[in-house]
Specification:
DNA polymerase, domain 1, alpha/beta, 6 strands, about 230 residues, 10 helices, Rossmann fold, 6-stranded parallel β-sheet
Length: about 230
């Protein structure tokens, strides 16, 4: 019997990559207006290269960006970039359509809800709180809580322990096959591949997940079918 539904955050509850692109565009434009002597295309290329090296959640990406260009940090450009990034983030930090109604229905049916995210603890909580999603979830696990990412079993085990359930009593939903699907499946958790959250999804039924969905609301039928 299913007792709990586990969700990834980025590209499962929110369109993280769309938000990231909009924020980066705004930040680069602001830095150019503040004196950065680069074309927008070249600046974005460098910025994304630095994200590849330092991780998409890097908190000092604009410091690294200006140091790469000038040999030292340029705080005028950094401040303009950060302010523009944060302002744009407020506009595009929204849940996918049907997320709220789906969470409401899941809670109404009496299931436990958890988040298992690889995001840094503060970034994860800011996104969740900004969307007013925190009250839906009984447990929220970030990289800091488990001290491991979802390539390892630890985050899932921490969530299961705090929920006081067995692996077979949980469903994990996420867009990352290597983290959200493969690791959870090895533990015996039912897995759902969120195709809608992946810009380049694998071929249908090639994800290795127990189920694949094109909209978050489809989880309701999966829950019903597993009972």
């Amino acid at each position: 019997m299913i007792k709990a539904i586990l969700f990834d955050v980025d590209n499962t509850l929110i369109d993280f990559m769309k938000m990231k692109r909009k924020c980066c565009d705004a930040a680069i434009e602001a830095m150019i207006n503040a004196g950065l002597k680069m074309s927008k295309a070249d600046a974005l290329k460098l910025l994304y290269e630095l994200y590849e090296i330092n991780g998409i959640e890097s908190q000092r990406i604009f410091q690294k960006f200006t140091k790469k260009i000038y040999g030292k940090e340029n705080y005028k450009l950094i401040s303009h970039g950060v302010l523009a990034y944060r302002k744009m983030r407020e506009s595009y930090l929204v849940p996918y359509a049907n997320v709220i109604p789906t969470l409401i229905e899941i809670k109404k049916q009496g299931y436990l809800l958890a988040i298992v995210s690889d995001a840094p603890i503060m970034e994860a909580w800011i996104r969740i709180a900004s969307l007013k999603l925190d009250d839906f979830f009984d447990v929220i696990i970030t990289k800091a809580d488990a001290r491991k990412q979802k390539m390892y079993a630890a985050p899932f085990n921490v969530a299961l322990k705090r929920l006081n359930i067995k692996p077979e009593e949980a469903i994990m939903i996420g867009d990352r096959i290597d983290r959200d699907v493969n690791t959870a499946k090895k533990l015996g958790i039912h897995t759902v591949y969120a195709r809608y959250g992946n810009e380049n999804p694998v071929e249908r039924e090639k994800s290795g997940a127990d189920f694949e969905i094109n909209d978050v609301s489809e989880i309701l039928d999966i829950i019903k079918g597993l009972q």
